[in-house]
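Q: My labmate handed me this sequence with no annotations at all. I'd like to see what the chain might look like in three dimensions before we decide whether it's worth expressing. Could you predict it?
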Amino acid sequence: MGKVIIGIHGLGNKPSKETLHNWWRSAMVEGLEKLGKSSELPQFELVYWADILYEKPLDEKTEDIDDPYFINEKYLPGLPDFIPEENSTRKKVLDFIEEQLDKLFLNNDLTVNYSAITDMVIHRYFKDLEAYYSVDCLDENDIMCQARKLIRERLVETIKKYEGDEILLIGHSMGSIIAYDVLTFMIPDVDIHTFATIGSPLGFPVVQGKIAAEWQSKRLVPPKLKTPPGVKIHWYNFADLRDKIALIYDLSKNYLPNWRGVVVENFIVNNDYRTTLEANHHKSFGYLRTPEFSKVLHRFIQEKSTIQKLTSRIRAIFQ
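A: Here is what I predict for the chain of 319 residues:
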């Protein structure tokens, strides 16, 4: 039994799979090095799905900022003079906003009020998410009709490849929705040692409503939302309070423990990603090198596997 890290990216077109894989890995190594920990990672695989929705990837070599394939936000190491922000006031405001959003948009049975408004927002600002949630298709050969199936199948295939290993599954942004859905609806019996969500929109009423609607589509009464059943040890959620996609930062209010008793553990972090022009508090690279995430990553890497623990106990008995 080995250890494996699986990541799944979020919204929008991306650079090539190889490039994005290397940038995620570099961000994780950077975070470990800042903690003074070993920078050696176990097997890491990135589940890449941008090519399902986009004809070709963003191009590292493109220098024209007006070119649609220009990369605005490449991987950049964190600045040494970064000062974490004090968040107590912002946290109080966001707590109030969450309470009001739930009251306004989410019923007790997890159906969504004013769905026309939420669908309009998704259509205008989140095209990838609209394709993922698309159910009414006039042309079944349209890739948008197949998007959810194809994206989920890629994650299922990757997880099953490492079934039996101890898996740390990282979902960024929309990738956290895909990961949650796959672990809940497609492979609920596959064990995941640690589930980590970064910059996740899973707290938004519309996303909770979509999850509940999938239960209903299976002619099941939607239960209270819970930690996916296969998550064995931890579900960690990392949110920067300035990240507009992760404004609902405390997922423990919306997701109950699974049958194993695994609860969501929330971490408020400071995402330090910025280009020469501006900061992006939603960027995956910034999340992957925060001290809070790096500590979780280091603990996962260093912790003895189940097999190692069992072997140590057997040796102790016969010594």
